[in-house]
Design brief:
Layout: H1 2-46, H2 51-106, H3 110-121, E1 126-133, E2 142-146, E3 153-164, E4 167-179, H4 181-229, H5 252-308, E5 312-316, E6 322-325, H6 336-339, H7 355-366, E7 371-379, E8 385-396, E9 402-411, H8 413-459, H9 464-490, E10 499-501, H10 503-518, E11 522-527, E12 535-537, H11 539-555, E13 561-573, E14 585-594, H12 625-636, E15 639-645, E16 649-657, E17 681-685, H13 689-701, E18 705-709, H14 712-720, E19 727-731, H15 740-750, E20 755-760, E21 768-769, E22 772-773, E23 779-781, H16 786-797
Parallel strand pairs: 11-13, 17-18, 17-19, 19-20, 20-23
Antiparallel strand pairs: 1-2, 1-4, 3-4, 5-6, 5-9, 7-8, 8-9, 10-12, 13-14, 14-16, 15-16, 21-22
Keywords: Membrane, Phosphoprotein, Transmembrane, Transmembrane helix
Domain Histidine kinase: 437-660
InterPro entries: CheY-like_superfamily, HATPase_C_sf, HATPase_dom, His_kinase_dom, HisK_dim/P_dom, HisK_dim/P_sf, PAC, PAS
């Protein structure tokens, strides 16, 4: 039983410390939220205002933590002491009461048990006591006093024994409960007293520390901060001095002030040097900025020149390959990017045709000499041949090594084309003047021949063999007249009689005439625009032009083919035309003649409109067909364009100006004029004796009386002498300084209303302007036949307007 009591006592002591620590933790949890939380919150909020409050907060926080730790330690020691007293009291109860309680329980004296338990209950801190009988019988004795199971208690169980026949027997258990509530209450009061006293002491000490810190440090820091905030290097204030009693030995603040004033002095010195350096730097920057602006302006100026100049600029490396070509080259169809990395000779077109020129140029480059106006031909991005002129200057580095060439290039294509067109125009004009002069003299001769043949044919009507010979001569004269007419048409000296014509009707009529001429092996196809405009042109000359083009097309298709006649309306913008001056704009009627022949080689395509130029064999053509077409188109105010591809055929397009009228004249079949006779007097002015004799003879055979003069002066002399005549029949081109038109004007001044008929084998700008006869002018072109002469004279004498 004694061992049992000791084990119970140990178990009860083991439970007490755990309960005590749990209850002590409860005290900390109860105190901390109420005091520490509020204190920390206020301290942290206040500590944001400056160094002093933060110092105070730190002191308070540290003091509170130390106070709490010491208080907790003190309370724990007091708790251990109080619990030890209670345990000692419980041990005393176990030693002094278990014997008497055992006897009372053995005697089953419950009253005595209760009295003894009440005595135990009156002891300090005892809350409950109980005796339980240990017996194997129903309803064992159980006596309890006090309030059992109260919180925070220490319990003990003591065995109750008795000796029966020398044997100790356990007959019951004494259970005692002691409360710790009074202990806790005393500890709480003690903790409050300690915390309050410590908090007051800590706060007072902290305030004192803050005051001393402010007096010794903080206010001086504020003075230093104010001095620093107002410090200006431009206007430095006097050295900093603190308002305080200097200590016997310099302290930290004195050292800070000394160091700070030294730093300010160094700053002032450095600031002065910095201002000088800034001034120098600013001057240097201005100079550099000015230089950069000059360089930028120079570069921009160069770029502006490079991109707006008529030339373009280039650079090459030591290997003479292009490293730079200005974008201006693109304005001339050149792809400047594609030329980078190439040499000039690589892009040239004529290096094989002119090897000597290129060898000399490459030798100049190898000698690293400047060059000027080196001309060569090349192709642009579209493949068109262009003419270039380049200037170059060698570039050397500062150490003298060769770096390449730099220079400019000029596109001379337009100049070369203009010069070529000018040469062509001059050549064509010279040929025109030559052919006009030849035609004039030749027409005079043909006039006599034609008229004479007519007289011979009349006299040989009964001699067929000689009449056939006369007919051959007449045919040859007619052929000669056609050739001179073609020459004059090319030279734009053929007087035209333009009028509004229905182009479609004329093309259809001409197509009918072409079928027997072209043969069965050539298919004629017409594609006529339903809305084709009427054109202003000479219908006979237009028919001749179409026939000439059709004959050329037939000769290009010796094995047969298809000839297409096409009409359409066109608005030209000046890009069409085959020669110099062919820039036409406006509304035109197009007549296209195309074939499926062998085409025109590219190397002769530009010469096809030259007179007497032909690819046919000797005796197979005069070379005047296309020349006549070209002259007719230009004299009419239109243009002609040709397109050809070898093996595919040729297309020639005539552009005739659109007429302004609404009702185009219908082409009527030409009827042979009848010979008309008369009896009037005609003044014949002709410088060629043969032609003069022929005209006088013809007019005499027609019944007319004639007066003759060899030039304008002789004719005026007859007029001034009072010679009577009804018609002035005068040549236009005459020697003596007076042409036919001037003669007619002089005669009209003397005899107003006189009728005038002009004749000429070659008309200049006297009575023909822009291919049209002047208004009211009657002209009989040489050579002419007797019937044409008689018909024209009757028209003028009757006062009929010129056809």
């Amino acid at each position: 039983m004694g061992n049992s009591g000791d084990e119970d006592s140990k178990r009860s002591r083991a439970v007490a410390p755990a309960a005590a620590k749990q209850d002590l933790g409860g005290i900390g949890v109860a105190v901390a939220p109420a005091m520490i939380g509020a204190l920390l919150s206020r301290v942290f909020n206040w500590s944001r205002s400056g160094v002093g409050p933060r110092l105070l907060a730190a002191v308070l926080l540290f003091s509170s933590i130390v106070t709490l730790m010491l208080t907790t330690l003190q309370l724990y020691l007091d708790y251990e002491r109080e619990v030890g007293l209670i345990e000692t009291r419980l041990d005393e109860i176990g030693r002094s009461t278990t014997g008497s309680l055992g006897e009372s329980l053995w005697n089953l004296d419950q009253n005595q048990l209760r009295l003894q338990l009440d005595g135990i209950l009156r002891l300090p801190d005892i809350r409950a006591a109980e005796v339980r009988e240990v017996a194997d019988r129903p309803n064992p004795i159980r006596v309890a006093v006090g309030e059992p199971n109260t919180p925070s208690m220490v319990t003990r169980n003591y065995p109750l024994t008795t000796t029966v026949q020398g044997v100790v027997r356990t007959i019951g258990v004494l259970h005692v409960e002691a409360t710790l509530s009074e202990v806790y209450q005393q500890l709480l009061h003690r903790a409050l007293v300690i915390l309050a006293s410590q908090a007051a002491k800590t706060f007072l000490v902290s305030l004192f520390i803050i005051y001393v810190f402010h007096l010794l440090v903080t206010r001086h820091l504020v003075a230093i901060a104010d001095f620093v905030s107002k410090y200006s290097l431009a206007r430095p204030p006097p050295p900093l001095r603190l308002e305080r009693s200097p200590p016997s030995d310099p302290d930290e603040l004195d050292k800070v002030i000394v160091a700070f004033n030294a730093m300010c002095a160094n700053l002032e010195c450095a600031y002065g040097e910095l201002r000088e350096a800034n001034a120098t730097l600013e001057r240097d920057l201005k100079i550099r900025r000015s230089a950069e602006e000059d360089a930028r302006a120079s570069e921009q100026r160069f770029r502006d020149y490079a991109e707006t100049a008529s030339d373009w600029f280039w650079e090459t490396g030591p290997d003479h390959r292009f490293t730079y070509i200005s974008e201006r080259a693109g304005g001339f169809g050149m792809d400047h990017r594609a030329l980078i990395g190439k040499r000039r000779i690589d892009a040239a077109f004529d290096h094989d045709a002119e090897p000597e020129k290129w060898r000399a140029h490459l030798a100049t480059l190898d000698r690293r000499e400047p060059f000027r106006k080196f001309e060569y031909r090349g192709r642009d991005a579209s493949g068109r041949i262009r003419h270039f002129s380049v200037n170059g200057q060698p570039v050397f580095g500062t150490d003298g090594h060769f770096m390449g060439y730099r220079g400019s290039a000029t596109d001379l294509t337009a100049q070369h084309e203009t010069e070529e067109r000018l040469r062509q125009s001059q050549k064509m004009d010279a040929i025109g003047q030559l052919t006009g002069g030849v035609a004039h003299d030749f027409n005079n001769v043909l006039t006599v021949i034609t008229g004479t043949i007519e007289l011979i044919q009349e006299g040989l009507a009964d001699r067929p063999q000689f009449a056939a010979i006369a007919q051959l001569i007449d045919d040859a004269a007619t052929r000669g007249a056609e050739i001179t007419s073609q020459l004059l048409t090319f030279a734009r000296r053929q007087p035209l009689e333009p009028r509004e014509i229905d182009v479609n009707a004329l093309v259809l009529e001409t197509a009918k005439l072409l079928k027997p001429s072209l043969g069965e092996h050539v298919e004629i196809v017409t594609r006529l625009a339903d809305d084709a405009w009427s054109a202003m042109a000479d219908p006979s000359q237009l028919s001749s032009a179409i026939v000439n083009l059709a004959v050329n097309a037939r000769d290009a298709m010796p094995g047969g083919g298809r000839l297409t006649l096409e009409t359409a309306n066109r608005e030209l913008d000046g890009t069409e035309g085959a020669g110099e001056g062919d820039v036409v704009r406006g509304a035109f009627v197009m007549i296209a003649v195309s074939d499926t022949g062998h085409g025109i080689p590219a190397d002769i395509r530009e010469r096809v409109f030259e007179p007497f130029f032909t690819t046919k064999g000797v005796g197979r053509g005069t070379g005047l067909g296309l020349s006549m077409v070209y002259g007719f188109a230009r004299q009419t105010g239109g243009a002609v364009a040709i397109e050809s591809e070898e093996g595919r055929g040729t297309v020639v397009r005539l552009f005739l100006p659109r007429s302004k009228g609404e009702a185009p004249a219908k082409t009527a079949p030409v009827q042979a004029p009848a010979t008309a006779r008369g009896h009037e007097t005609i003044l014949v002015v002709e410088d060629d004796p043969l032609v003069q004799g022929y005209v006088i003879a013809q007019l005499g055979s027609l019944g007319y009386r004639t007066l003759a003069a060899g030039d304008g002066a002789a004719a005026l002399a007859l007029v001034d002498q009072g010679a009577k005549f009804d018609l002035l029949f005068t040549d236009i081109i005459m020697p003596g300084g007076m042409n036919g038109h001037e003669l007619a004007e002089a005669v009209r001044l003397r005899r107003p209303g006189v009728r005038v008929l002009y004749t000429s084998g070659y008309t200049d700008d006297t009575i023909v302007h822009e291919g049209h006869l002047d208004a009211g002018v009657a002209l009989l072109s040489k050579p002419y036949r007797k019937s044409e002469l008689s018909q024209k004279i009757r028209e003028v004498l009757r006062g009929e307007p010129p056809a």
